[in-house]
């Protein structure tokens, strides 16, 4: 929900951003028709600046919606035509949005204050690696494996990306088949999937 009390939805198969006014029940499509076919955007998060950020799933660029102005823009650079790049977004204490790579190779970091998009950490091979993430009580972003074998941790302050814990494929719990597809931070500060 935006600071204006409206709900914003980035387009997945649609062409434009949907804004729903919760007070009146009215809705409208805002911004220009966005390029690309289906699965343009699959996640969004509200940034510290009151704008919505959506990492590109099959779109090429990060989507930014200024909720106060109803303005829609695409941030540079273009991350290319790879489908299903990112499926999640988490706002971290450093004021940046992080996305764990699904079919992309590296973690996406969006500096909301600078409107700067960067890829951080090592190249991580494979497809369908992580589709969900949550913020831990230590300020790190954690992503449970979907079709990967280990948990991804992003230390946002150090900008360090690493896979942690045991190889879950060896336990029969992961390594394919969409092992975990959601994550939430519990009241105890731990991440649950």
Quick structural gist:
The protein is mostly beta strands and about 190 residues long. It is built from no helices and 17 strands. The chain has one domain (about 40-193): YVTN repeat-like/Quinoprotein amine dehydrogenase (Methylamine Dehydrogenase, Chain H).
What topology emerges from the helices and strands here?
Elements: E1 6-9, E2 17-21, E3 27-30, E4 45-46, E5 51-54, E6 62-66, E7 71-75, E8 90-91, E9 96-99, E10 107-111, E11 116-120, E12 134-135, E13 141-143, E14 151-155, E15 160-164, E16 184-185, E17 191-192
Antiparallel strand pairs: 1-2, 2-3, 4-5, 5-6, 6-7, 8-9, 9-10, 10-11, 12-13, 13-14, 14-15, 16-17
Q: H/E order of the elements?
A: EEEEEEEEEEEEEEEEE
Quickly count the domains.
1
CATH class wording: Mainly Beta
Q: Please state the CA-atom Rg, rounded to the nearest Å.
A: 16 Å
Structural class: mainly beta
- Biggest sheet layout: 4 strands, antiparallel
Number of discrete helical segments: 0
Gap between N and C termini, in Å? 23 Å
Relevant CATH superfamily: YVTN repeat-like/Quinoprotein amine dehydrogenase
CATH fold-level label: Methylamine Dehydrogenase, Chain H
Record field, number of beta strands: 17
Q: Which CATH architecture would you pick?
A: 7 Propeller
Strand content: 25-35%
Residue share in helix: under 10%
- Mean residue pLDDT: 94
Low-pLDDT runs of 5+ residues are: none
- Walk across the major sheet and give the strand order: 4-5-6-7
Outline: globular
Protein name: SMP-30/Gluconolactonase/LRE-like region domain-containing protein
Organism: Alexandrium monilatum
